[in-house]
C-alpha cells in the first residue's frame, strides 16, 4: 500500500484513527505523505522487530 493510500485509508476509517492515537474521528486530512516518510525514516529495524516480538508475546499469553 502506498503512503497516499495509507493516508486516505486513515482519513476514512475511525478505527485506524483511534489506533494511531487520535482523540476523535475526523473526516479531514490529518497527515500527509511526507509525514509518513519522515516517521518511517526514524524507525529502526531493531525497533520494528522489538514491537513484533511484544505483539506476538501478548498474543501467545492470551
Task: Please explain how this structure is put together.
With about 60 residues, the protein is mostly helical. It has one domain. The protein contains 4 helices and no strands. About 0% of the residues are buried.
Helix and strand arrangement:
Elements (H helix, E strand, L loop, with lengths): L2 H10 L1 H6 L13 H9 L3 H17 L1
Helix pairs in contact: 1-3
Short account of what is shown:
The protein is mostly helical. The chain has helices spanning about 5-10, 15-20, 35-40, 45-60.
Low-confidence stretches: none
Can you give the mean pLDDT? 88
Number of domains: 1
Cα gyration radius (Å): 14 Å
Keywords summarizing the entry:
62 residues, mainly alpha, 4 helices
